[in-house]
Specification:
Number of helices: 12
CATH superfamily of the largest domain: Type I PLP-dependent aspartate aminotransferase-like (Major domain)
Shape: globular
Structural class: alpha/beta
Order of helices and strands: HHHEHEHEEHEEEEEHEEHHEEHHEH
Number of strands: 14
Strand content: 5-15%
CATH topology of the largest domain: Aspartate Aminotransferase, domain 2
Largest sheet: 7 strands, mixed
Radius of gyration: 21 Å
CATH class of the largest domain: Alpha Beta
Length: 376
């Protein structure tokens, strides 16, 4: 049996090696390394795939969030509502721009933002909400949009973990994550469901004027070279990464299906065990399983389980061990333990198992065997 990886990037590369190598060679031959034809083609293809009016590629997912907030005109002192159970980048960008992150707890089943708690966090300074489609499943976007529309708030979807996930609205229409709010942002970090071989990100926009503003900000604030109409930044997806992403975008639905098959086997093996809770499914969202995250019973020592799996060459990860409101960078005197009970419990109980497109049956059977062995 091959060594087990949390994400088998090497195996995935070898499966598409000929296409990727040719795509990279084409860029090298053209020498159009920045803003070349591959970048423009990828932007158009991603827009077509996701149903976005425009896609603006950029340097990484964190930049995508920053550019979106700048384009929406958020000003220092404005408040942005964000879940406290997520990766730091979501709140980091808010703070970097002089905005104030206002944390809310998450749903105990889906781990996504708890819509029922948003209303109580809105003040006269609130200007936006950033729902995160965590671990590959859509947040309750209809609920989020209902609150946002009621209070005239802007919505930025953090779609870094759920590209390709689909939402079925109450009226039966189907849309993709990243296309419901004012802006969607995503990351192409190598381990993402759609990952490049370096850093990369993109912004999904439905409004043409807002898309143009994002494009200008990402390019030093210039519409015309050397003429800068606004303060911007330098955030570009290079042509080599775009060429790789074009190859992988064509396979994204296949990749999502492979992850879902792995998740289904975990569900079957672990779903009846009272010591773990398998990932819940939002009935109105597909789950593309950026992570397969178990919630352990309080009687289970997570550190011991993680160490046991590691001793048997089964990798696992904790996403995330510390809530954002308890991080030193964000901690405020008024925050006390128990303020966000769901998140605080999850940070002590979650454990993610390997899930990726190249998982072999023998590998997964071994993982399941060792998980069940520890659980007894």
């Amino acid at each position: 049996m091959k060594p087990i990886q949390m994400v088998d990037l090497k195996g995935q590369y070898h499966a598409i090696k000929a296409e990727v190598d040719q795509a990279i060679e084409n860029v090298l031959e053209s020498s159009a390394f920045i803003n070349g034809p591959e970048v423009k083609a990828f932007a158009e293809e991603m827009a077509a795939y996701t149903g976005s009016t425009k896609v603006i590629p950029c340097a990484n997912g964190t930049d995508a969030l920053q550019i979106a907030m700048m384009a929406l005109g958020f000003k220092p002192g404005d408040e942005i509502i964000v879940p406290t159970f997520t990766y730091v980048a979501t709140a980091e960008v808010i703070a970097l721009l002089g905005l104030t992150p206002v944390f809310v707890d998450v749903c105990p089943k889906t781990f996504n933002i708890e819509v029922s708690q948003i209303q109580d966090k809105i003040t006269e300074r609130t200007v936006g909400i950033v729902p995160v489609h965590l671990f590959g499943q859509a947040a309750n976007m209809e609920g989020v949009m209902e609150v946002a529309n009621k209070h005239n708030l802007r919505v930025i979807e953090d779609n870094a973990q759920a590209i390709g996930a689909r939402i079925t609205k109450a009226d039966g229409t189907v849309t993709q994550t990243g296309t419901v709010g004012d802006v969607g942002t995503t990351s192409f970090f190598p381990s993402k469901n759609l990952g490049c071989y370096g850093d990369g990100g993109a912004i999904q926009v439905q409004d043409e004027a807002l898309a143009e503003e994002c494009r200008v900000i990402a390019n030093h604030g210039q519409r015309k070279k050397y003429y800068h109409s606004v303060i911007g930044c330098n955030s570009r997806l290079d042509s080599v990464q775009a060429a790789i992403l074009r190859v992988k975008l064509r396979k994204l639905d296949e990749y999502s299906g492979a992850r879902q098959q792995v998740a289904a086997k975990y569900d079957e093996a672990l779903g009846g065990n009272s010591l773990v809770t398998i990932p819940a499914r939002n009935p109105r969202s597909t789950h593309v399983f950026h992570q397969y995250t178990l919630k352990l019973d309080t009687s289970i020592n997570r550190d011991e389980m993680k160490a046991f799996l590691g001793e048997h060459k089964v990798p696992s990860m904790v996403y995330y061990p510390v809530p954002l409101h308890m991080q030193e960078a964000f901690r405020q005197p008024e925050f006390t333990e128990g303020d966000f009970p769901v998140t605080e419990a999850l940070c002590k109980q979650v454990l993610s198992l390997p899930v990726h497109t190249e998982m072999e049956e023998e590998q997964q059977a071994y993982i399941i065997e060792k998980v069940l062995e520890f659980l007894g």
